[in-house]
């Protein structure tokens, strides 16, 4: 704890000293917990532009330098050397696993990939064209009904078990949602396959023949899960922390995170990017859409561009862009018009003063959809893919919060701008 202080002076009042906390990396934080008690004031920060909501040791981001680290390890090194399961272990436990720890962890995860048979029947209630995010959100939250009496969130072992169950079941729920949309029969998980290979088989395999996992598709998808695994206190992770702070069931809490991720300003952007590219249609139309994006009277924004934290290139977008080339080279048509259009749009936008001045660069969602598309995954499943990876981060933050003895229920205040006190008006006087 640093002994730095900030002095807060309000006209006509004695100055107030506020403690300043320093982390191991990143900006210091002014502690305002005593501000209301000592000065009768709230802080005001809609959208939390300058507000730290918690202590965390999981992920560090430097938006100006384009830095992303999971437990101190640079995302570029994890992307190059790790696997999604190893990264999910790292996020939860804080250290890279030994081979023995990883093998045991993988066995436990694969053991929980099955869904309760009565939960499978939930899908029969969805219309055939139900959006997969709606099915995932509903089914994950419904897991509360299956484990509610076996989740004592004060018990660390129960917390870890819930986390493993959630990481393990997300691919199964995703694949069953996809098969519900296609009307094709589901495949049950296979524990002898990798986490991502098993997912690909459940998605694209049929009972009629053996499914052979394509190593390039498996590696590309596993890498995308790594890149989406965590990202500090983003909207959906903050939703998970706030929902979890009331002591709610972990499955309901992750259901809340899924709901928040679905928004096009957040995880829904990858699907919105593909819709936008289809709407732009050709390189000739790019200037028209760039103009629309700048027009304050036009709600159109360049999906996949901009970020609350990164005012430089999103390091994940750099990695994904490279994988895009490889996947399209080998798995899809090399001159994929969408990819050509995306690269041209990126080139024009990142050289345009409006975007450069506002630090609007491609983010993680700009290229990921093109890879998903090349792997045969439909646009409606793109945010579901994001949720599979992000579940590792969500459960890690949920556990970190509950492990903190200082944690308490989150309850922000407000700047009230409504009516002052007034008396009820009887109906005949209105
Ligand atoms: C994710 O938080 C995370 O970490 C999220 C995420 C994660 O891993 O969890 O990284 C994943 O959600 C990535 C972001 C995906 N969303 C999109 O690609 C949607 C398009 N982007 C925008 O909606 C926007 O950039 C946000 C939501 C991402 C960020 O919004 P901010 O920080 O609130 O920025 P802002 O809206 O205040 O914009 C600042 C300026 C404004 O112009 P001025 O008022 O200064 O003139 O930039 C403009 C905005 O109009 N602007 C854009 C733009 N994004 C911002 N203009 C055109 N196109 C855009 N995409």
What Rg is obtained from the alpha carbons, in whole angstroms?
23 Å
Q: Tell the overall outline.
A: globular
Order of helices and strands: EEEHEEEHHHHHHHHHHHHHHHHH
**Can you count the helices?**
18
How many angstroms does the end-to-end distance come to? 59 Å
Query: Bound compounds, please?
Result: s-citryldethia Coenzyme A
Mean pLDDT: 94
Topology:
Elements: E1 5-8, E2 16-21, E3 29-30, H1 35-39, E4 59-62, E5 67-70, E6 73-74, H2 75-81, H3 84-93, H4 99-111, H5 117-120, H6 132-147, H7 156-182, H8 195-204, H9 215-227, H10 235-244, H11 250-261, H12 269-280, H13 286-294, H14 315-331, H15 337-349, H16 353-357, H17 364-374, H18 382-403
Antiparallel strand pairs: 1-2, 2-3, 4-5, 5-6
Helix pairs in contact: 3-9, 3-18, 4-7, 6-7, 6-11, 7-8, 7-18, 8-9, 9-14, 9-17, 9-18, 10-11, 10-18, 11-18, 12-17, 14-17
The site of s-citryldethia Coenzyme A (SDX) has 22 residues, from α17.
Word description of this protein:
38% of the residues are buried. The chain has helices spanning 35-39, 75-81, 84-93, 99-111, 117-120, 132-147, 156-182, 195-204, 215-227, 235-244, 250-261, 269-280, 286-294, 315-331, 337-349, 353-357, 364-374, 382-403, and strands spanning 5-8, 16-21, 29-30, 59-62, 67-70, 73-74. α3 (84-93) packs parallel to α9 (215-227), α6 (132-147) packs antiparallel against α7 and α10 (235-244) runs antiparallel to α11 (250-261). It is mainly α and 430 residues long. The protein has a three-stranded antiparallel sheet. A three-stranded antiparallel sheet has the order 4-5-6. The termini are far apart. A hairpin with a 7-residue loop joins β1 and β2 (16-21). It has 18 helices and six strands. Helices cover 50% and strands 5% of the residues.
């Amino acid at each position: 704890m640093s002994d730095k202080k900030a002095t807060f002076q309000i006209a006509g009042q004695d100055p107030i000293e506020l403690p300043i906390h320093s982390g191991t990396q990143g900006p210091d934080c002014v502690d305002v917990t005593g501000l209301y008690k000592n000065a009768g004031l709230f802080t005001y920060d809609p959208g939390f532009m300058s507000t730290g909501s918690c202590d965390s040791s999981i992920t560090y981001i430097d938006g100006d330098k384009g830095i992303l680290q999971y437990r101190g390890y640079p995302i570029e090194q994890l992307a190059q050397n790790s696997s999604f399961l190893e990264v999910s272990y790292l996020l939860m436990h804080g250290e890279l696993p030994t081979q023995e720890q990883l093998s045991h962890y993988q066995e436990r995860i694969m053991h929980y990939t099955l869904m309760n048979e009565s939960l499978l029947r939930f899908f029969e209630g969805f219309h055939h064209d139900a959006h997969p995010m709606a099915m995932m959100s509903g089914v994950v939250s419904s897991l509360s009904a299956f484990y509610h009496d076996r989740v004592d969130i004060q018990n660390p072992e129960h917390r870890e078990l819930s986390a493993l169950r959630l990481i393990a079941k997300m691919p199964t729920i995703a694949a069953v949602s996809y098969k519900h949309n296609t009307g094709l029969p589901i495949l049950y998980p296979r524990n002898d396959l990798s986490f991502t290979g098993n997912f690909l088989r459940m998605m694209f395999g049929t009972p009629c023949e053996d499914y052979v996992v394509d190593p390039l598709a498996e590696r590309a998808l596993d890498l995308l899960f790594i890149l989406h695994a965590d990202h500090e206190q983003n909207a959906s992770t903050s939703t998970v922390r706030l929902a979890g702070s009331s002591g709610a069931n972990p499955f309901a809490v992750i259901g809340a995170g899924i709901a928040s991720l679905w928004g096009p300003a957040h995880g829904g952007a990858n699907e919105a990017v593909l819709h936008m590219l289809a709407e732009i249609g050709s390189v000739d139309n790019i200037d028209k859409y760039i103009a629309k994006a700048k027009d304050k009277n036009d709600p159109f924004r360049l999906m996949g561009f901009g970020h609350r934290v990164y005012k430089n290139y999103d390091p994940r977008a750099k990695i994904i862009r490279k994988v895009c080339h490889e996947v399209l080279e080998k798995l899809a048509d090399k001159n994929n018009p969408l990819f050509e259009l995306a690269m041209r749009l990126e080139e024009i936008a990142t050289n345009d003063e409006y975007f450069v001045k506002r630090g609007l660069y491609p983010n993680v969602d700009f290229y990921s959809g093109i890879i998903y598309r090349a792997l045969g995954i439909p646009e409606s499943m793109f945010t579901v893919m994001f949720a599979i990876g992000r579940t590792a981060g969500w459960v890690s933050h949920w556990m970190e919060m509950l492990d903190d003895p200082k944690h308490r229920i989150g309850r922000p205040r407000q700047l009230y701008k409504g009516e002052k006190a007034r008396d009820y008006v009887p109906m005949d006087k209105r």
